Amino acid sequence: MDELLQFLAVMAALSAGAQAVTQQMKKRIAILHLSAKAKPNDSKWDEVYEEALRRVNIQFLAGVNGAVLAGLAQVHPLQMLKMQPIWGSLQPSWAASLFDYAFAGVLVAYGGPWFHDALGAVRVFKMQAKTIAPPPKKE
User: 37-75 burial, b if ≥16 CB within 10 A, otherwise e?
Assistant: First the structure.
């Protein structure tokens, strides 16, 4: 249970960090066209396409930011759960690490809200387990 809690906590922290970095990049990097703009278009389909493209770019950027943060923090998500990934035996070893960081980036980009909810559920479960458990008997 401790491995799961550690995994969820680290992934929730990476998700929050990647989200914060992505929000700052959306505001400050105009070249990527990530901020929503209210400009008149001739067609409703152009607006829908531009909004969908903007969302895809934001998700991709969140994944890249998550992978970079995982690389900086040396996070190997499957090893935290005591699992050996398929790519773990790749040579050179930095290639396996790149796959780990990319995997962490995908988890962070698409699993952020899930990690926060799961971490909250595990915390509540542990708190209830502590309050429900009877005190040890003294003899």
Answer: eeeeeeeeeeeeeeeeebeeebeebbbbbbbbbbbeeeb
Running along the chain, 139 residues long, what does each successive block of 10 average in pLDDT? 78 83 81 63 70 80 88 84 76 82 83 69 76 67
**Cβ contacts of residue 40 below 8 Å, gap of 6+?**
none
DSSP labels for the chain?
-HHHHHHHHHHHHHHHHHHHHHHHHHHH-GGGT-S------S-HHHHHHHHHHHHHHHHHHHHHHHHHHHHHHT--HHHHTT---GGGG-SSHHHHHHHHHHHHHHHHHHHHHHHHHHHHHHHHHHHHHHHHSPPPPP-
Residue 4 has which token pair? 């799961």
Its pTM surpasses 0.85 = no
- String of DSSP letters for 45-65: HHHHHHHHHHHHHHHHHHHHH
